[in-house]
């Protein structure tokens, strides 16, 4: 008998009677693939079919790009005022709020995440649409009035053009909401490709955009796989920019593919995020935040705090506290509102998570808790136990690579320099955290650790106002904050001679 908190299957009557039928949205029309191809998604927790999506090919991707190009080059959207764009984005936010429960439920069924968390994510997404609406009215450049009496220099910000927005499966609605409202606020037109595993809520968003009155072709959605849809969206010369969130490997492939036409590429990639816990830290606060950081979204999270580096004097005490908390976290049926950790996205991914744990044990690490699939009454075995691996050494794969599961690696240190060196010892640089009551210790860490976000005495707070993105192989560019809008803007310099004062060049 496992001493864990497990929520068994809820009422089977809650499951959908029929899967949601999903189509592409191209040039304002909802269409199937020309060859009729589809792909089915089964709920990772419940095993039943929850969506059947049109499976796009090259033809659908190219048609969507043509529609977006036409809407940008000849349509009204890029010429609308900031006020008009803001009014539209606010309307979408209200519609998201109206349909929050429906969207959250589909997100749960396709991704396996818990319903309470999905509800919070959809609420957060609506907030981002409102924040982008506020930014839409701030788009402005510079003026230069000291270039001579008859000259005026202007630096204008213009929409970059047609953007491809490619998203992953772990936060489908939230991540498209970190891209699309900013692209629309800038005046861009878009082709969106959600993950083949979680297309449902992106299609629901398209329906809301249509209801809010977005002109045809301004936003298009193509469903399908990286090959060929994602590849066409990254290579077609009619696309001006690719904004991608996903794995570092695919991010590198997209960068190479986009280089032939020198598109701008913005990348939000993986992480192997360290938290350093000094001996003077509040260990109770740290233990709770560490549990949150590693189990949130079943650890399938770019920001997963999956690597802790703890002072050796307090390591045993802290691990005991995390083990005790881990036993209390409710894992199980994601449709039950009590559940805090749901299912793993696919059986293949579950095997990958387990492989990292077994590999670490074979290399000399020790499992302090978990380390195996989790049986949940009435549901299949696509769950993984809360897992804590101690005696991890920095060279082990579990300490260097994204496990993307509910698995914590524990490393130890003696001196601050050693801790900071360990924190920086990764190809990634997405986020990092420090726990200490001494503000100078926190400040030193914050200055010396190379990561896009640093948390001090907290983990994974998030605000639409603050930019998010990675150093090193965690990405390039930023989302959210005012940078979220800047990413989708191009700079145009204007030099205006006011009078006919230009000196002749030819004598
Ligand atoms: P993935 O890279 O496998 O897929 C992401 C998207 O890219 C999907 O839509 C996929 O169909 C598409 N794709 C696949 N091959 C492609 C290609 N050759 N060209 C164009 N598109 C292609 O990632 P995933 O497994 O869906 O998501 C998990 C990864 O995403 C993790 O590495 C995680 O850290 C990362 N992630 C990062 C952030 C962030 O903000 N930094 C947020 C969430 C997830």
Question: Can you walk me through this structure?
Answer:
By secondary structure, this protein is of the alpha/beta class. About 35% of the residues lie in helices and about 20% in strands. The protein has 16 helices and 25 strands. It has a seven-stranded mixed β-sheet, with helices on both faces. Helix 10 links the parallel strand 14 (about 275) and strand 15. The longest helix is centred in the first third of the chain and has 22 residues, at about 115-135. Nicotinamide-adenine-dinucleotide binds near residues 247, 430 and 475. Nicotinamide-adenine-dinucleotide binds near residues 170 and 246.
Describe this protein with a few key phrases.
alpha/beta; binds nicotinamide-adenine-dinucleotide; 16 helices; single chain; 37% helix; 7-stranded mixed β-sheet; 6-stranded mixed β-sheet; 507 residues
């Amino acid at each position: 008998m496992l001493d864990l908190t497990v929520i068994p299957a809820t009422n089977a009557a809650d499951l959908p009677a029929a899967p949601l039928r999903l189509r592409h949205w191209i040039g304002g029309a909802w269409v199937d693939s020309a060859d009729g191809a589809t792909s089915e998604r089964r709920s990772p927790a419940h095993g039943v079919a929850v969506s059947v999506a049109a499976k796009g090919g090259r033809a659908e991707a190219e048609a969507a790009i043509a529609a977006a190009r036409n809407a940008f080059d000849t349509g009204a959207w890029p010429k609308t005022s900031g006020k008009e764009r803001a009014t539209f984005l606010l309307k979408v936010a209200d519609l998201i709020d109206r349909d929050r429960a429906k969207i959250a439920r589909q997100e749960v069924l396709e991704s396996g995440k818990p319903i309470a968390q999905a509800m919070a994510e959809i609420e957060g997404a609506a907030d981002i649409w409102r924040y982008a609406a506020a930014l839409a009215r701030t788009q402005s450049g510079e003026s230069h009035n000291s270039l001579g009496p008859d000259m005026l220099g202007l630096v204008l910000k213009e929409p970059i053009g047609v953007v491809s927005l490619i998203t992953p499966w772990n936060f489908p609605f939230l991540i498209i909401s970190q891209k699309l409202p900013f692209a629309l606020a800038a005046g861009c037109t878009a082709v969106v490709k959600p993950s083949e595993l979680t297309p449902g809520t992106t299609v629901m968003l398209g329906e809301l955009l249509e209801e809010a009155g977005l002109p045809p072709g301004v936003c298009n959605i193509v469903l399908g796989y990286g090959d060929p849809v994602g590849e066409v969206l990254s290579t077609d010369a009619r696309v001006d920019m690719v904004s991608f969130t996903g794995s570092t490997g695919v991010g590198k492939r997209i960068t190479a593919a986009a280089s032939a036409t020198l598109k701008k590429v913005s990348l939000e990639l993986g992480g192997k995020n360290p938290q350093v816990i000094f001996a003077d830290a509040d260990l109770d606060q740290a233990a709770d935040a560490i549990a949150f950081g590693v189990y949130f979204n079943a650890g399938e999270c770019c920001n997963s705090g999956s690597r802790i580096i703890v002072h050796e004097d307090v390591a045993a005490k802290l691990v005991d506290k995390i083990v005790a908390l881990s036993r209390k976290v409710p894992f199980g049926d994601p449709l039950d509102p009590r559940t805090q950790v749901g299912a793993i996205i696919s059986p293949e991914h579950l095997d990958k998570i387990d492989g990292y744990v077994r590999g670490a044990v074979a290399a000399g690490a020790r499992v302090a808790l978990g380390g195996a699939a989790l049986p949940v009454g009435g549901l299949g075995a696509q769950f993984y136990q809360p897992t804590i691996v101690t005696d991890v050494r920095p060279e082990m794969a579990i300490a260097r690579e994204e496990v993307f599961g509910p698995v914590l690696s524990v490393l130890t240190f003696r001196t601050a320099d050693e801790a900071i060196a360990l924190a920086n010892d990764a190809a990634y640089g997405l986020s990092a955290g420090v726990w200490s009551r001494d503000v100078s210790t926190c400040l030193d860490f914050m200055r010396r650790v190379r990561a896009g976000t640093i948390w001090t005495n907290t983990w994974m707070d998030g605000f639409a106002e603050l930019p998010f993105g990675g150093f090193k192989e965690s990405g390039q560019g930023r989302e959210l904050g005012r940078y979220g809008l800047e990413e989708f803007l191009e700079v145009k310099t204007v030099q205006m001679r006011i009078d006919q004062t230009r000196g002749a060049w030819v004598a």
